[in-house]
Amino acid sequence: MQKKLEIIQGDITKATVDAIVNAANEWMLGGGGVDGAIHRAAGAKLLEACKAFPEVRTKVRCPTGDVRITPAFELAAKFVIHTVGPIWRGGHDDEDRLLESCYRRSMQLAVWVGCRSIAFPAISCGAYGFPIRRAADISVRTIQTMLNNGAPLDRVVLIAFERETFQAWQDALSHEHNALT
Ligand code: AR6
Predict the structure, then answer these.
(1) Ligand 1 pocket by C-beta < 6 Å: which residues?
(2) In terms of CATH, what superfamily is 4-180?
(3) In the prediction, which pLDDT does 88 show?
């Protein structure tokens, strides 16, 4: 089970997996960070596909903690799963639960459309300010729980853009492993 979860350092737009996850915003019209990189690499059709989702409230196509899926167009992946992480507000605004929901629903949606592999960035850990070590623990625990419960995925890849993120995920994975042995 442990082998299915990989941690690597790199650029998620280059990932050769069935689905990559985008750390989007609720409006889903692109932005900076990994969102900007994914839109640039996937090409203009990605924005058109995002615009096709109806607004569930003013300027909200995807509520925080939820997911939407589009083709990946010019990327090597087949799909982009767009999720919206919580903005860090000190930890008293349901941020942990919402971040967990992003990872869980992204995996569920990937499985639903037949993906066998998925890659995640560190959702909420850039512009949205979520503390990286806390986010790393939540993401590793959520993914491992789903894999342990039989989610039919061959590979889940956590892609760290920075060294600090890579280290936080490595540490979270070894804590999780130690807790189970
Ligand atoms: N590959 C992998 N990870 C990356 C890449 C990349 N190419 N580029 C950046 N990261 P952020 P958020 C890392 O800010 O905090 C956007 O403007 C980055 O170093 O992209 O969820 C959206 O439109 C960090 O560790 O996402 C929203 O408005 C992580 O990805 C808002 O930012 C997430 O950083 C979302 O903020």
Answers:
(1) 11-13, 23-25, 31-35, 37, 85, 121-128, 159, 161-162, 165
(2) Leucine Aminopeptidase, subunit E, domain 1 (3.40.220.10)
(3) 98
